[in-house]
Amino acid sequence: MRDHPLRFACAIVLALSCGCAGIGPYRPAPGTEADRSANPDSVRRAWLKRGAGADPHNLGILKSAGDTDSFVVMVYGDHRRGLRMQTRSRVYRLMRYHGYTGVKRVAMGILLAPFYVLEAIVPTLDGPRDLVTWFTHRPRGGNEDGVLEAMRVDGPSQLVVSTGDLVQDGRRGKHWADYVKSHRELRSRVPYFAAPGNHERMETEVGRDNWNTAVGAPPQPDRYWQSVDLPDSLARFVFVDANILTNVEGIYPDSVAEALSQEQLAWVDRALRPAFRYRFIVMHHTPVPAGHHTTDWDPPAAARRRDRLLELCRDRGVTAIFTGHEHLYQRVFLRKGNGRGGVWHITTGGGGSPLHGVSKQRRDAVLSIPLIEGLSFDPGTIFWKSTYHYIRLVLPRAAGRSATIAAMEVDGSRSTQMDRFVLETPGTSR
User: Fold this and answer.
1) How confident is the model over 343-348, as a mean pLDDT?
2) Model pTM?
3) How far apart are CA 47 and CA 63, in angstroms?
4) Domains, the chain, with CATH or none
C-alpha cells in the first residue's frame, strides 16, 4: 500500500476516524418482502431447471422464455457505488500518475492529501457528499441508479449477467443491504447471475458469507465458479472467479491461489467441452486491460494462469469473454493465427461506478501486450469509450442468424446505442 500514496493517506484517515466500523454480516430481516425477493435459493428454483449432466458447478438450464425468437441478455459490471473523487479528482490523477517511486512517492502523497480533501469539499469540483462517505461507509458516487433505470426502460430480457464489483466493500453488511434494495425489482423479474469482483473481498470469510446470503452460495463450498445454460444448447455462460487467478497483492497464500486456480481451470476446460452454439466466459479481471489496471497479471504465476485461460478460449471455441474491472467500455477481437475464427474480448465496467479516464498512450499500449501463440489483436476491431453503459446481447434461436451486441450509453437514465457489432469473425459473413 505504501507505493500508492492515495491509498496510504486514505487508510490513515479511515483508521483514525472510523477504524473497522461497519464491517459485519449482511442479514436481511426474516419474513420481509426484501428477504423473500432476494432469497437466492428461491430465485434459482424459479428460473432454472436441472440438466441431465453431473457437473456440480452447473446451476442448470434457464427455463424457456415462451415463444420469443431470440434470447436477450443484459451484461454490465462495476455497478458498485463508489467514491467519485477517487477517479474524478484532479489531485488524485496527479498523485496516481506522477513519476516518483518509493519514499518520494509516499511523501508526495502526504503533501497532496490536504489538497485532495479540499477538492472533495468544493461542490464545483466534486461535491462534499463523497467526503462524508469516509465516515458513513455508504458511498453514493457514480450512476448505478441511472443505469438500472435505463436497463428497465430498455425492454424485456431473459437474463442479466454482471461482471462483478456489486458493492464497494463486500465485508460491510449495509453495502449488501443497499445492493439488494437497489436491485430488488430487477432480480425479482429476471434471472440474475454474477462473477465475483475484487471489491466483494471474497478472500475474507465475512465477504464470502455476505455474497452467499445476498447473491447465492456456490454449488461447491468456497468454489465461486459455475455455469448457466440456455435451452436447446443455445449458449453456456461460464462464470470464473478471477480473484484467485490474479491473486492481486497476495490476498491468498500462494499455495492456496495456485491449488484453487488449477482446480478452477481444469473445470473451465470441462465446462467448455460440451456442444453449444455459443460459449461465453464471464469474469471480473480483464485478460486484456484497457489502460488502467495493467499489472494484475504481471506476476509469473498469474501470467501462466491467464495464458492457460486464453488457450482454453482459443481451443474450445469461446465466442466472447465478458469482463469488468476497468470502468469503461472496450471491445477487441483476438484473431486466431490461421485466420479462422477467434474470440471477442469485451470489457463492460460502466454499470455505475466512478469512471476511469485512460490516456491515448495507455490505450495504444494495449496493442503491445503479448498474447499467447495463435492469438493476435485485430486493430480494426478496437473500440473504447469511458462512459456509463450496459450491453444488450441478442442470441437468435433460429440457425443461420448471427448473434449481435449493442453497447448502450447511459446519460442520466436515458440510453442510446454507441456501438453495435455481430459476434462472428470480422471480415466474414454467412
Assistant:
1) 98
2) 0.85
3) 6
4) 5-21+84-136 (no CATH), 33-82+139-422 (3.60.21.10)
